[in-house]
# Entry
Amino acid sequence: MKRRRWKTLGLLRKLLTCAIGSLGLLALLNAHQQEIGYQKLGGERSWKLEVAPPHLSRAPLPARKICDMVAVARIINATLVIPELDKRSFWHDTSVFSDVFDEDHFISSLANDVIVIKKLPKELANATRVVKHFRSWSGIDYYQDEIASLWMDYQVIRAAKSDSRLANNNLPPDIQKLRCRACYEALRFSPQIEAMGKLLVDRMRSHGPYIALHLRYEKDMLAFSGCTHDLSPEEADELKIIRENTSYWKVKDIDATEQRAKGYCPLTPKEVGLFLTAMGFLSSTPIYIAAGEIYGGDSHMVDLQSRYPLLMKKRPNLVFDGWCVAIGFASGTVFAAVANTEQERKALVQLFDKIYQGTMREGKKLSTRIIEIHRRRQGSPRKRKGPISGTKGTDRFRSEEAFYVNPLPDCQSIGISDNLLKLKKPVLPLLEISVAERLYPENILVADKLSRTRLLLQL
# Structure
């Protein structure tokens, strides 16, 4: 029985190594391996690639929003105009769609479903238009009845937001499958990014197993979510000021303790170290930090570094994150099948607090509990979870498992299920948006069959 348990644990470690690698695999461009208190692993592990345009900073890559707008265009019989990526967000990115995505492939792949054009026709520049806030998690009736009726009075509809504007469930099968095609077939990275991603993945794989870890312990995430655990009072005050001064972040007063208890906060670097140790990862495991600049710098990385000395990160002055974020998803689309959700983080926080309070110690008991928490988070196929029983209104929709987090069974029949269900290289990459980035609108134009000269403009 003991031998069987350790065999299972070994398999779980391998699965999680692969899965965690897909979370942030190689968000690394024009980057070196940087030493953090240990000897270099050899010349082959240090490289510099000078190909990233300097204007690509921290570009939010809103794949889900774009794919949902493709589906909305189909529902209201519209033509989609290539999106303009957000330029007003926290990171002030200036990249355009074609910098990140393969624009021509996007257009041609959707030709049988939705007409896509590169820009708004000149003759419609002065067309009548209206700004419309699409209702969150709306079904097909809402778009066919309320939104489509706007064509009677307007040629252009400007949608103020695109995050979570389409329901996760109870949509016609053809609409759900279109979302799958848009996300997993039509929307792929530009050839330059794909080539760079392959090069870096091959180089990292040549050195054996490793973990690419996206901590998401960054200034914007912590400021937006109001998470201050393990921070100094001065750091907490700084984050509060950022949140108060960011106009499009609506929630200003946040109870940090409550946020953490509900699982809404990212794990601290120290807690990540506890987690990896409990899962059985050896201290000799190489870890690449795929995130941006860790808030608080090295002072918050001391514990993780002491547990895992082979810690690598990109140099802050060599970061062009527009490509970095994209390349971070070059390894696969299955990270969401194993990534910690709010439910897992909530359970982990309860265990970690017991350690902090001295009522539990690291060791076999903690390891067993953490492994059990993640027993169903090993990448195996399963149906998407519906809402939590008893929830109503917005809370009901929020409690559902998001469509793109687990697109089964809807995506299973379009020829990509094997790549989604197995921890192997997928057909095409997928982007994941952080909680904070869901607020950032991108400009999407949608027009209904150009002959009618009606357009839906997505901000």
